[in-house]
Specification:
This protein is of the alpha/beta class. Helices cover about 40% and strands about 15% of the residues. The protein is built from 11 helices and 9 strands. The strands form 2 sheets. The chain has a 7-stranded mixed sheet, sandwiched between helices. It has a two-stranded antiparallel sheet with strand order 1-2. Strand 3, helix 7 and strand 4 form a beta-alpha-beta unit. Helix 1 packs across helix 2 and helix 6 runs parallel beside helix 7. The protein is elongated and about 70 Å long. The N and C termini lie far apart (about 60 Å).
Length: about 300
């Protein structure tokens, strides 16, 4: 239920309203209250940071005060800022979100980083990329943005997610180098692919109720629930990927905390060769797990 917030912003200046909002968010024990307040007031007023500074003394209009009050209510109720605004930056690119897509997170950028490392080593001409469980299309479109001659396809079970990904591809000018298909994992794809990437669902089912309210009530459970032990998606995905990779091609998946070694075991069982340690995120957690299909 949305918590009501009194319209404390009426008649306030932009700077005063920003401080009031930050105080409300701190009182609700929300992390990054100052940052969230700046982003939300900027969105409510249609101003960037420079505009907020330049107009700091200007009083809010009644419409702006009402919009900011609505944003405050939603954030205090636990809705993430990215959900409130409907957008999130990933790899320096803007992505529209929908109820069927995860909010792209910085941890997932390790998958992009590992992929670019491999491409720099192999120097593949016109590589073919598949992104499994593409959601908003963040991983695939970040790679296409960085590799100008690449073509990619994203799969997802959700038609809503696929529509969101197509819209993001078009907005980023990547629609002519990407395609999106509704299917389970790689079922509708024949390959071969030089690279297969995925951020699959990997949260054990019993752990989902323990997640933060931002995640458990606002991210789609289809994109979170990895089954009893968290590995259901990997068990399905890895053998399919091994069949559809080109010789020398790579599979890169995001892993949850403590999962990397077991994922490597599943990769080895599918005759994929793990030739380097997982790439860690900023917290030091092994996050991007990769393996190659060796030439015969």
């Amino acid at each position: 239920m949305t918590r009501r917030v009194s319209n404390a912003f009426t008649g306030q200046s932009i700077e005063s309203a920003r401080r009031t909002l930050a105080a409300q968010l701190r009182s609700a024990q929300l992390d990054e209250a100052e940052l969230d307040a700046r982003i939300l007031i900027g969105a409510a007023l249609g101003l960037d940071l420079t505009g907020l500074i330049a107009q700091a003394a200007r009083p809010l209009t009644s419409a702006e005060a009402l919009q900011l009050t609505q944003y405050a209510e939603r954030r205090i109720a636990g809705e993430p800022v990215a959900r409130i605004l409907g957008t999130r930056e990933f790899w320096g690119l803007p992505f529209r979100l929908s109820e069927a897509t995860l909010v792209p997170r910085p941890d997932t950028e390790t998958v992009v980083e590992r992929a670019l490392e491999l491409f720099r080593e192999q120097k593949i001409h016109q590589p073919r990329i598949a992104d499994i469980g593409t959601g908003s299309g963040a991983i695939l479109l970040a790679l296409l943005h960085e590799i100008p001659d690449a073509f990619g396809v994203g799969t997802d079970l959700s038609l809503t997610a696929l529509g969101t990904a197509r819209g993001n591809a078009a907005a980023l000018g990547l629609g002519n180098r990407s395609g999106f298909v509704a299917c389970s994992y790689l079922a509708a794809l024949s390959g071969p692919f030089d690279l297969i990437v995925s951020n699959p669902p990997y949260i054990p089912s019993a752990e989902i109720p323990k997640l933060s309210i931002e995640v458990r009530e606002h991210d789609p459970h289809l994109a979170l629930d990895g089954g009893n032990d968290g590995y259901d998606a990997y068990r399905a995905l890895i053998p399919q990927a091994a069949e559809r990779l080109t010789p020398g091609g790579a599979l890169i998946v995001e892993a949850g905390q403590g999962q990397a070694r077991n994922i490597e075991t599943l990769m080895a069982a599918a005759a994929l060769v793990v030739d380097r340690p997982p790439k860690a995120d900023l917290a030091g957690i092994p996050r991007a797990v990769s393996a190659r299909k060796m030439p015969p």
